[in-house]
């Protein structure tokens, strides 16, 4: 690689890529180069060094605060002892500057030979810098490992090596994975919420109170415009660059940061002269650093656990952080195309499920056609009750005029107007059209899932704050009516007061142990429904509500609440086109879980007719039975369940429905299948008889 080869190199470089190279000027052959995509910010440098090798330092800037540093080296064949001793002094300034550092290239060392003293010395010296050799396969046609990758980063991993026909070396592939910070290229519109004085907020809202329309839709829009206009005066929208975070661990204090710098300085001093005094000082500083890290981590995690004793979500996050601290994260790059693709995928998934049932008759109900107790209208609530409900809601939607804490700061002013709107909505039995629209945030189901597969995304609906207040008001009254009249399945533990996953687990465990104590075989069937909340048939739900006594304005309001809903995917700053919701109960709503539990309640009666125990948590249903019991008609029970689900347009996911047989070996040989399900107990031990 030299100046005369520049035209040939230019032809070889693909479109959209750049090359940075260092030619060999004093000998024939040789030279090193880095080829990279032109959208990536890469900087390179070299330095004068007595090292008998060609080199190039590089930095790959993934964002303003994240840099992958590295050194590319080619060492020609020749004496190796001097290189083994001098390589650490050469790369230590870069290797110690960042934990994200890699050393790679052709070193012409037989690193696979443990009895080679030069290779052993090289590996030991680099290990002192925390660098580990990752390549574990031959990289040369002769079977030697000449092209290593050294790194101390947990985000760098060796992938494989591949044969290239025009060289005697193999191509070495590795992966650098990191959860990057996505920066917006253009300024975003933002308000300084924390700079709004509470007294000034209250006075501005009080001085500009509007006269609300008697039309519910106009009243809902007026509420939004009133709050927005007041906020425009207090905290106008401004184009500001997005602030980013370094994402450093919560336990990493400034004291640890300074002590780490001290250790790096002492290590450089020791590598310069290798004196016993400097080594002793370095060991003491390193020992102090490690002890302080352990103590700080212990204190930090203990405090977080104590603070979140009753917050199961945060407790799970802490356990995940402790058990898998170096998990690879796949990043999502927001774009308009991705938003539209996700919106289309979510919509088609539900419509395809809905259409697969075709035209069917309504399922029969066991409830009386003329209920003894009815609920004809929702009870009006006071401004104080509205205020209390507002303070129980801690989330909103991107289309809200302000965050939920601004609503709560001005609760007694906004509550009086919201109470009037709720009263008019109950009287007219309608739900505002502007509050039927949901913003959907698409999240990866697992951090390591492939973002290119749309099936790995989970839709999270975000509904307006005022809509949640109204839904919570209705939900309290509907829940009281259903509970007082025993219209909910007692075995349902999801989304109910004084119930949780713990009550469901206790119920399942108790049923299993009771059957096993009686010497019976136990079958545990775990039913899985495909998109259960999203396939609720509105016509079936309304018919069932009417038959249980919910009539008049109360039923008309629920009908309005479910109709003409829409959603669109929101990946800041992009939004997809709106899509219509043809079925389902709105996800993210406090009312939807109650409607879903009521919709599923007849299933328990069908199952119990066949002497099968049932425990449910939302759409997760567990059936516990003894398949050898004469009282249990398993096949008929499972058949009735499948038919009821089909009539109610609920899809049984056979691929995820599982069966577990509990008992001794002869008992566990009772094998059965769900209709059209491939699952059965497998890998049973041989019959000892």
UniProtKB/TrEMBL annotation:
Domain Reverse transcriptase: 424-674
MF-aspect GO terms: RNA-DNA hybrid ribonuclease activity
Enzyme Commission number(s) of this protein: 3.1.26.4
Family: Belongs to the beta type-B retroviral polymerase family. HERV class-II K(HML-2) pol subfamily.
Protein name stated in the entry: ribonuclease H
């Amino acid at each position: 690689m030299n100046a005369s080869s520049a035209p040939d190199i230019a032809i070889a470089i693909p479109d959209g890529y750049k090359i940075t190279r260092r030619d060999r000027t004093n000998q024939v052959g040789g030279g090193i180069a880095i080829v990279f995509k032109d959208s990536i910010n890469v900087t390179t440098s070299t330095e004068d060094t007595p090292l008998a090798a060609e080199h190039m330092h590089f930095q790959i800037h993934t964002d303003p605060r994240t840099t992958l540093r590295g050194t590319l080296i080619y060492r020609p064949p020749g004496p190796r002892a001097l290189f083994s001793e001098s390589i650490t002094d050469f790369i230590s300034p870069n290797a110690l500057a960042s934990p994200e550092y890699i050393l790679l290239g052709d070193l012409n060392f037989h690193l696979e030979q443990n009895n080679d003293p030069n290779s052993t010395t090289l590996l030991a010296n680099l290990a002192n810098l925390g660098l580990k050799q990752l390549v574990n396969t031959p990289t040369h046609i002769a079977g030697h490992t000449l092209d290593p990758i050294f790194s101390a980063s947990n985000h760098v991993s060796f992938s494989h090596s591949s044969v290239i026909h025009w060289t005697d070396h193999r191509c070495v592939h590795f992966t650098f994975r990191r959860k990057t910070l996505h920066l917006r290229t253009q300024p975003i519109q933002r308000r300084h919420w924390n700079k709004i004085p509470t007294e000034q907020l209250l006075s501005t809202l009080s001085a500009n109170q509007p006269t609300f329309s008697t039309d519910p839709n106009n009243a809902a829009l007026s509420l939004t415009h009133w709050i927005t206009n007041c906020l425009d005066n207090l905290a106008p929208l401004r184009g500001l660059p997005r602030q980013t975070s370094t994402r450093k661990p919560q336990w990493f204090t400034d004291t640890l940061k300074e002590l780490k710098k001290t250790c790096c300085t002492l290590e450089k001093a020791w590598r310069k002269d290798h004196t016993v005094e400097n080594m002793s000082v370095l060991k003491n500083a390193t020992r102090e650093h490690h002890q302080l890290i352990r103590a700080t981590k212990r204190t930090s995690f203990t405090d977080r656990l104590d603070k979140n004793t009753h917050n199961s979500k945060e407790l799970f996050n802490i356990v995940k952080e402790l058990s898998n601290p170096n998990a690879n994260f796949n990043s999502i790059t927001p774009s308009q195309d991705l938003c539209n693709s996700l919106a289309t995928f979510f919509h088609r998934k539900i419509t395809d499920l809905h259409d697969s049932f075709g035209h069917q008759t309504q399922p029969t109900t066991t409830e009386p056609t003329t209920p003894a107790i009815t609920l004809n209208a929702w009870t009006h609530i006071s401004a104080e009750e509205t205020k209390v409900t507002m303070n129980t809601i801690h989330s909103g939607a991107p289309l809200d005029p302000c965050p939920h804490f601004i609503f709560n700061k001005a609760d007694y002013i906004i509550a009086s107007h919201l109470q009037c709107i709720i009263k008019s909505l109950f009287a007219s039995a309608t739900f505002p059209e502007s509050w039927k629209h949901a913003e959907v945030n698409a999240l990866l189901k697992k951090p390591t899932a492939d973002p290119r597969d749309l099936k790995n995304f989970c839709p999270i609906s975000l509904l307006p704050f005022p809509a949640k207040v109204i839904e919570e008001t209705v939900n309290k009254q509907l829940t009281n009516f259903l509970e007082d009249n025993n219209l909910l399945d007692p075995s349902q533990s999801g989304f109910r007061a004084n119930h949780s996953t713990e009550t469901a687990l206790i119920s399942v465990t108790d049923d299993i142990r009771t059957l096993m104590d009686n010497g019976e075989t136990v079958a545990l069937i775990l039913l899985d429904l495909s998109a259960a909340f999203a396939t609720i048939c509105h016509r079936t739900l309304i018919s069932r509500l009417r038959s249980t006594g919910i009539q008049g304005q109360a039923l008309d309001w629920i009908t309005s609440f479910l109709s003409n809903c829409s959603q669109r995917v929101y990946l800041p700053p992009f939004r997809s086109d709106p899509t219509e919701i043809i079925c389902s109960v709105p996800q993210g709503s406090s009312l939807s879980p109650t409607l879903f539990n009521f919709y599923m309640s007849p299933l328990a009666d069908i199952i119990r007719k066949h002497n099968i125990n049932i425990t449910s948590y939302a759409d997760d249903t567990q059936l516990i039975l003894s398949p050898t019991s004469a009282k249990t008609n398993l096949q008929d029970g499972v058949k009735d369940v499948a038919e009821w689900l089909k009539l109610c347009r609920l899809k049984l996911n056979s691929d995820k429905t599982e069966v577990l047989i509990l008992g001794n070996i002869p008992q566990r040989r009772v094998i059965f299948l769900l209709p059209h399900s491939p699952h059965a107990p497998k890998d049973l031990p041989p019959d000892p008889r």
